[in-house]
């Protein structure tokens, strides 16, 4: 696939492969952890890498990395189950990679987006034997509509079910404040009293 991404004049790349493996890290078999990281981190990273050079040369292109709102669930308390550290971390990678790559590609004509839906009405859960019939879910069509409109709006992180974009802005401002608040000096809370 990377060869196709590198050799063909792609106008859009959508990284949307999925595998769940929802379970706490201690219960996640090594082969499933490896598969999850390959599908959600390694493959999108390498496919994006393969496609981006040609898009830059042509001065146009769109890269959409489908992540999910679980990318923002890291600080949730223990009541949020099942804990899924590797799954959440892999989606967080897609968000951070998309944001950073978007900045790298500023003014090149190449757009990058992390598309972060919540629960979507697809066969994803039913294939795992999970009955989601009572859980409110967004339609796949609405997710696609939001992603495409988000590209038109220039959104690097598109969250189709989040009405108040100020919430996302606050998260990203806090991220940058923490990043900018670092110092080469040891923080006072870590110094012996």
TrEMBL record:
Keywords for the protein's UniProt record, in alphabetical order: NADP, Oxidoreductase
One example GO MF annotation: oxidoreductase activity
Record-linked Pfam families: adh_short (PF00106)
InterPro entries: NAD(P)-bd_dom_sf, SDR_fam
UniProt superkingdom: Bacteria
Keyword hit for NADP: yes
UniProt similarity note: Belongs to the short-chain dehydrogenases/reductases (SDR) family.
PANTHER family: DEHYDROGENASE_REDUCTASE SDR FAMILY PROTEIN 7-LIKE (PTHR43391:SF14), RETINOL DEHYDROGENASE-RELATED (PTHR43391)
Name of the molecule in the record: Short-chain dehydrogenase
Naturally occurring in which organism (per UniProt): Streptomyces minutiscleroticus
């Amino acid at each position: 696939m990377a060869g196709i991404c590198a050799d063909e004049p792609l106008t859009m790349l959508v990284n949307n492969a999925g595998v769940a493996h929802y379970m706490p890290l201690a219960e996640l078999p090594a082969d499933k952890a490896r598969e999850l990281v390959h599908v959600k981190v390694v493959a999108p990273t390498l496919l994006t890498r393969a496609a981006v050079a040609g898009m830059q040369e042509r001065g146009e292109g769109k890269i959409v990395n489908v992540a999910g709102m679980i990318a923002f669930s890291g600080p949730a308390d223990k009541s949020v189950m099942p804990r899924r550290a590797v799954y959440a971390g892999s989606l967080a990678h897609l968000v951070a990679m998309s944001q950073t790559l978007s900045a790298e590609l500023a003014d090149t004509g190449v757009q990058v987006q992390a598309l972060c839906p919540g629960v979507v009405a697809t066969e994803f859960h039913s294939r795992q034997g999970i009955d989601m019939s009572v859980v409110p879910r967004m339609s796949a069509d609405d997710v696609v509509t939001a992603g495409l409109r988000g590209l038109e709006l220039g959104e690097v992180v598109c969250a189709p079910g989040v009405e108040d974009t100020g919430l996302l802005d606050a998260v990203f401002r806090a991220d940058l404040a923490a990043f900018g608040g670092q110092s080469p000096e040891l923080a006072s809370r870590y110094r012996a009293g």
